[in-house]
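Hey, can you fold this one?
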Amino acid sequence: MTRKLRKIRKKRGSRTQGYGKIGQHRGGGQRGGHGKTGRHKHKWSYVLRHEPDYFKKHRFKSPRGQTKNNIINLKELEEIAAKLTPRTRKKRARIPVDLEEMGYDKLLGEGKITLPVSVKVPSVSEAALRKIEEAGGEVLQEKP
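Sure. Predicted structure:
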């Protein structure tokens, strides 16, 4: 059965059209505003609990004070050493790899290495040093 008049026709003149005195159907209503509104007023306890850094200043950090190390892992070193290896090399000879010349600052120990390499690098982690020595290689680094 079809309705003769829309429901809103009955609600005309009632100011709130049945949505109550406070809520008013749409809008921020019960939320206390849209989105992040009220964070410095009535939603302050939320900020304290969940976002304590919300009103802090995020200052500029000078790039001069930040040094970025160019690092390499053992798995990448293995690939580099495999490319440098001539096919007719002796079985026990170490493959010389100069990471310092390639622009790397530190050697880290992620991954495995099977080739015996002689690596020249400014800095090396303990895990990388141990794995290279287990594979029959050596690490050459300058003492400061």
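The first strand starts at residue 71 and ends at 73. Let me know if you want another pass with a different chain boundary.
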